[in-house]
Structure prediction request, 596 residues.
Amino acid sequence: MASREDRFVALMRALAPDSAARGLLDDAAVIAFGSETLVVTHDMMVEGVHWLPGQDEADIAWKLVATNLSDLAAKGAQPVGVLLGYALGPDDARFARGLGEALAAFDVPLLGGDTVAGAAGARSHGLTALGRATTSPVPGRNGARPGDTLWLTGAVGAAMLGFEALRDGVPDRDTGAFRRPMPRLAEGIALAPHVSAMMDVSDGLLIDAQRMGHASGVTMAIASAQVPFAESLPPSRQREAMAWGDDYELLFTLPPGVMPACFAHAIGCVTEYRDNNILVDDAVPQGSLGYCHDLPNL
Amino acid sequence: MASREDRFVALMRALAPDSAARGLLDDAAVIAFGSETLVVTHDMMVEGVHWLPGQDEADIAWKLVATNLSDLAAKGAQPVGVLLGYALGPDDARFARGLGEALAAFDVPLLGGDTVAGAAGARSHGLTALGRATTSPVPGRNGARPGDTLWLTGAVGAAMLGFEALRDGVPDRDTGAFRRPMPRLAEGIALAPHVSAMMDVSDGLLIDAQRMGHASGVTMAIASAQVPFAESLPPSRQREAMAWGDDYELLFTLPPGVMPACFAHAIGCVTEYRDNNILVDDAVPQGSLGYCHDLPNL
Prediction:
């Protein structure tokens, strides 16, 4: 059964016939503008959904910037600037500080936005990131072809462990992977001219690989023994980590015989469609594939 | 004393040194991109602040589009597309319907966005509107000069009356001005090459005129007898209507002797700074000038 979000996105798709929208199936809109190509993305974060109540506002700001820039990275785009939609909260100065740190770290200016107050209950913020395409065509999720190799720029699982440590107040545990993710901007720009498909892993390796397989009309066959995991992850939790997002690595495909322009791990191959858009060790994965917005309490 | 929003915006200004951000003092960011100029704005709407709980979701969607396009109108920009940040709610299909009606009415495509669920309490949505500048330089709030005439494209007060009728459930009263504002896109494009300054009136005629006066370092001297009001507005409420927003008319200045390229009302003149950035009938206005986000209950 389609989730509420899926149903809403299907309604939206009917309103987005423009090719720049890429059928709302991609990480960002890609718009021919003047003599160049503009890449634009907008992501929201909601208290209690994307961050823990009481979490440091500076980290929330950082993550809001990083997750949007990760969408630009998936397109190989160079950031041009961001617009912030901000709900005033308990510590606006801390938020401003974290925002400043992120903008400085990724060398991107704040260009505008909006500030609101007065909402009772959970706050939410939005960020729009604008980028300049560095290659043409701009990579999408839909270009993976049978015979391609599937690659991942880095390990998964650290964000999950960081989230748990933060939630449970575990001292001396590194929570940075969850609080302060690093978008793979340089890698995205290096890879973009060569990949057949690319996206960032935000909701979980399995669900995101499935989305790429679906958009490309192929099967992504992942070999779980080749997937890189965070060093501190217990082997018993590897399957779980493949369905937990927030690590913001880049997932991409290359034609056979082409090696990546940056360090990456070959984690599987692309085949003609068989049984499902994703297979793990030649079987259809059971259980959760990743984060889904269709929460049962709504 | 500075409001919480003012203090936060001051922190943001330090992060926005790029000239495209216009010091966060304008309706939109203006970015040289490729061979053209991109105009981008992002506005949010919050339940209980920008719309009444229980209000028709289709009207909320319409207004979210219209208010952002109004910012593009203030720059004389032609809309290119919008990105939606949507919090799933009680009637997503109605929201989608109103969004579709607005996008069709203003001939602008949906390009992307994000959908979230799970927030307890008030929902909020955001919209980013992208436009193409049609004139150079792109008008700002800061170009009003002593000797200019101050103009307004239409009446104020109808949105206030519409809001009250909707809130109080008054039958047979036209609430369209509040529910379904019309951005002055064609007027903005016609006016942009000629104005010395332009903005849209979203928070109230007086507060917005004050902002233009402040950005330009001048005094806006409004003659209240020249301000056009909604026909149904009781004369006793004219002062109140000048401090109520949501009418989305364009406020602009023209050099002496220049007539507007569209129908408009001359409502005052620009002088060297004296006493205040806004005067009404030669006096500093007392009391509220318009909508302010610094709500006392926070």
Observations:
- DSSP finds eight helices and eleven strands in chain B.
